[in-house]
Amino acid sequence: MSGDTPAGGPVPAASPEARDTPVTPAADQADSVEEQRVADGQEASVVVPVGAVDLGLAPVLDGPEMIGRRQGAFGVAGSGDTSGFGGLVAPITMPGPSSRPYGGDFDAVADELELALADAGLPMAGAIEKVVVDHGELTLYVAREHLEAVGRALRDEPGLRYEICHSVSGVHYPGDAGRELHAVIHLLSITHKRRLRLEVACPDEDPHIPSLTGVWPSADWHERETWDMFGIVFDGHPALTRILMPDDWPGHPQRKDYPLGGIPVEYKGATTPPPDQRRVYS
Predict the structure, then answer these.
(1) Cα distances (Å, whole numbers) of residue 47 to 31, 50, 101, 135
(2) Closest residue by Cα to residue 130 from 115, 148, 110
């Protein structure tokens, strides 16, 4: 037997068709199959890297919650299409609730909070509307009437110890009926090196949320700015006054229904009118 001949016998010569056919890498073949599945309307399968172990620890989302739609490039309403992008339509969605396991140390945070609230006689289901894990961040949607109790539990419970409130801001969702105004609170635990996001909603007709200045004094100026820009009234705040705009300023400038106004700037004899008086492209 020749030294060039494999132990299993001679290798047959490839056919001309096989020689002319390009070899597709296995990874590209997998991508092609996945793209074809999506094109056929099938759900894309989950691809697990070779050697990886799927422990099932990724949070399961129940699906996004649609609260409205945005038309145009900037979502401006009440004026003509001055951008030329009025035909664009996109849904406005909020992440849906997550199911356990949340992953990482998020489950431990939820468990500790549930025990702390139970000790205070407050069931978790009554205080927390939903738990969302999105973009690697844990968010608790808190019922506004229980915000202060939840805040004290997060600060005082040894297994939580969120000592710092470093941000309170607002968001206005006109399409979220009955929950148009949202306050977003960011907390930090130096003890456990964790961050947590709280979100509280209230309606336009009753824009009241309990103040957290009694729990975290650092919330003082942040709540003033949120009131100034969005009109959320933080009940119990020691001095809820404007912090950016003059005291006699009408309205709250970062709300979506705030008038855009116009700037009388002249450029070679021309002026810039308010948006509702500009040229319309559609």
Answers:
(1) 10, 9, 20, 19
(2) 110
Summarize pLDDT for 110-167 with one digit per residue, the tens. 999 999 999 999 999 999 999 999 999 999 999 999 999 999 999 999 999 999 999 9
Spatial separation of the C-alpha atoms in residues 231 and 18, rounded to whole Å: 72
Distance in angstroms (rounded) separating the CA atoms of residues 224 and 232: 9
Spatial distance between the Cα atoms of 272 and 114, rounded to a whole number of angstroms: 56
Contact 154, 196 (CB under 8 A): yes
The secondary structure element, H or E, covering residue 270 is strand 270-271
Q: Are the beta carbons of 240 and 224 closer than 8 angstroms?
A: yes
Predicted local distance difference test score (pLDDT) of residue 29: 47
Fill in the amino acid letter for 74: F
In the prediction, which pLDDT does 79 show? 65
Helix axes 106-119, 147-156, angle to 10 degrees: 110
Stretch 43-53: mean pLDDT, rounded? 36
pLDDT tens digits, one per residue of 182-220: 999 999 999 999 999 999 999 999 999 999 999 999 999
**CB-CB contact of 186 with 165 (8 Å):** yes
Q: Which residues contact 89 (CB under 8 A, 6 or more apart)?
A: 69, 70, 71
Number of neighbours of residue 148 by Cβ within 10 angstroms = 18
Burial of 3 (0-12, 13-18, 19+ CB in 10 A): exposed
